[in-house]
Design goal:
The chain is of the alpha/beta class. 40% of the residues lie in helices and 22% in strands. The strands form five sheets. Strands 4-3-9-19-20-21-22 form a seven-stranded mixed sheet, with helices on one face. Helix 3 packs parallel to helix 4. The protein is globular.
Length: 442
């Protein structure tokens, strides 16, 4: 018998959906060593070739790449339900900005982000992209929870509750990048808020910083019809024509939402290598509209999927987001073939990672990538019988079906329980902080 290679972890016995080639392995196995995937193949081959102190049995389960939440504001989990059933501009200007100005500090952001990470991990999310304030605290929280994050301090023309003036904001961003650039889990980025809250000079400076450090530049663009009309009136151009004239578009540019765009803009986005992150449930709830995802994909534009923040969604559930995205576009496009299950799952994993610049690191179960893995328990009434695992994940599975989660080879969820995390303490602190927020709004 061939001597087996010693490794750290073997996940074996279930259906493996690689989001690579081959797509489906049954019964499959994923072998992990030093945080990396070192083997993806059949369970019998893994048993013959490898041995490990930890073996996770996945019979009756489906093993997938960890989900990538391409856009959120994690600490806003503490503002969940603070103001609902309002248009975006009113929701933001009259409720969210005032609540943030009165309450935000490092402590609230740290515990709010930990609360969000707990929710995301339990839902199979291993990577998220975060735009918020006091982002160093958010990054510490993500690292402490063992999640992979693309993170950046939000930049505005007006004074921030964190850094004050925009010049201080640029300084904070530079320091944040230097602090986190070599971290194994955190990828720093530059994140101006939106075209109606950021001057042309701010956007150009942000582009210069992002390019100099080779990090993503992430901006809310064309989220609402009024956003588009504001830019056309102020700059005599549509959103992406305006950005193109500023010279800020490029392969590191990620546009969140990108709902109200025309064909000329989509062609520019494709030519410049811009990526999109769509957030269908938040856009629906705020009545912002729907992004033309099928048209983006036809042009070869990379598209990821996100939840947006819990204050506008009101959850961080990527399983539900996949279901919503697929069905929403079938309705709006009046074509049941648009955004099929396999395509949508790609947006939530492989393509989401590519959009954030992490395509070589995560997003698929591929040898050499980090072992970011979610295991779904399919031994459930609502998942029985099963003919197509992709279809089941997008249209039938729930976040509560996630049984185990591994990030960078480290188990973070086992048997629906967070590993080495005091969830009771996180929720207790969240409730206490929410009391302060509630009092400030009276």
């Amino acid at each position: 018998m061939t001597k087996r290679t010693e490794t750290d972890l073997i996940i074996t016995g279930g259906i493996v959906l690689t989001m690579d080639e081959p797509e489906v392995i049954e019964p499959g196995a994923v072998v992990v060593n030093d945080g990396d995937i070192v083997f993806v193949g059949t369970a019998p081959d893994a048993a013959e070739l490898f041995i490990a102190p930890t073996v996770i049995d996945t019979v009756d389960c489906v093993v997938i790449p960890g989900l990538v939440n391409g856009h959120t504001h994690a600490a806003m989990s503490l503002l969940r339900g603070i103001a609902d059933d309002l248009p975006l501009e009113e929701w933001l200007q009259d409720y969210i900005f005032p609540a943030e100005a009165r309450n935000l500090d490092e402590d609230l952001v740290y515990w709010g982000t930990k609360l969000a990470c707990a929710e995301m991990l339990l839902g199979g999310i291993t990577t998220f992209c975060d735009m918020y304030l006091f982002e160093d605290s958010a990054a510490r929280a993500a690292r402490d929870m063992g999640m992979r994050g693309v993170m950046g301090e939000v930049l505005y023309d007006f004074d921030s509750p964190n850094y004050g003036t925009i010049e201080k904001g640029f300084e904070y961003t530079e320091t944040f990048i230097q602090t986190w650039k070599d971290d194994p889990l955190i990828t720093p980025s530059v994140q101006p808020h939106a075209l109606d809250t950021c001057s042309p000079e701010l956007l150009v400076r942000a582009k210069e910083i992002a390019d100099s450090h080779k990090v993503p530049l992430i901006v809310h663009v064309a989220e609402t019809k009024s956003n588009r009309e504001y830019i056309k009136e102020k700059h005599s151009a549509s959103s992406f024509v305006y950005l193109d004239k500023l010279g800020v578009l490029g392969e590191n540019f990620v546009a969140d939402h990108a709902v109200w765009v025309d064909d000329e803009e989509m062609d520019i986005m494709a030519d410049r290598g811009v990526s999109i992150v769509t957030n269908p449930e938040s856009n629906m709830k705020l009545s912002s509209g729907w992004a033309p995802i099928h048209s983006y994909l036809q042009r070869g534009i990379t598209v990821g999927l996100g939840t947006d923040g819990a204050a506008s969604n009101n959850n961080l559930d990527m399983m539900g987001e996949m279901d919503t995205l697929a069905k929403l576009h079938k309705v709006y496009d009046t074509d049941p073939t648009h955004l099929g299950a396999k395509t949508v799952m790609g947006l939530a994993t492989r393509d989401g990672a590519r959009a954030l610049g992490l395509g070589e690191i995560t997003g698929s179960l591929t040898v050499g990538k980090k072992a970011d893995i979610a295991i779904l328990d399919f031994n459930k009434p609502h998942l029985t019988p099963m003919y197509d695992p992709f279809s089941h994940i997008v249209y039938a599975a729930l976040a509560s079906d996630v049984r185990d989660v591994v990030v960078g080879g480290v188990p973070r969820v086992r048997g629906r329980r967070l590993v080495n995390t005091d969830i009771d303490q996180i929720m207790a602190n969240a409730k206490q902080l929410a009391g302060h927020v509630r009092s400030s709004l009276k």
